[in-house]
Amino acid sequence: MIDLDELEKTNDSELIMLYREDDEDAKNMLFYKYKFIIDILIKKYQHWLNALKIDFQELYSECTVGFSDALYCFQEDKDSSLPTFITLCIERRISGIIRKYSRDKYKVLQDTYSLDFIYDDSNGSLIETISDEYHHDPLKNMAEEEEYNELIFKIKKELTKKEYEVFVLKSRGFDYQEIARILNKNPKQIDNSIQRIKTKIKNILNAK
Known about the structure:
The protein is mainly alpha-helical. It is 75% helix and 0% strand.
C-alpha cells in the first residue's frame, strides 16, 4: 500500500532519478500520483476509441508506454512541467494507435470500394473526387506553416512559462478543469490564465 503522506513529501525529481534506477517503489509512487492523466486522455478520445473499436487493453498498454517514455525523457530545464510532459507523451501514443486503427479501417474501405470505379453520374472516379476535394498547393502550405511557426514563437515569447503550459494544453483540446487537474491548480486560476492568454494573443494578432 502506498503511503500518501510519504508521496506528498517526496520530490518528483528524486522519484524520477530512482525510477531510472529501476526502483519499484518510485515507479509505483509516480504511477499512483499521475495515473489520473491516463483517465483524462482516454475520456478525451472516447469518441474515436468507440468509432474505431480500439481494444481497451491495447490502448491502456500504449498509455503506460507513453507514461514510461515521459519519465525517462523528462528534463526539468524544458518548458513543460512533469504532468504536462506526461500528458503530451501519452497523447502521442494514443494518436499513434488511432492512426493505426484508422489506416486499417481505411484499407477495409479501400478493398470494398475501388477508387477507380465511377459510382455516380458525375463521370468522375472516387480517387478523382477525393483528389479534387483535398488538393493543396505545396507552396501555400509551406507559407502557412512558416506563418504559423512564427506566430507560435511570438506567443511563446509573450507568455510566462506557466501561461505557455496552459496554452499548450488548451490548444490540444483540454478544458480549463482538465488543465487545472493536470497542473494541480485551482480551476479559477486556470480560467483566469486562459483569459490573460487570449488577451495577449489578441494583441499579437492585432499588431501584425
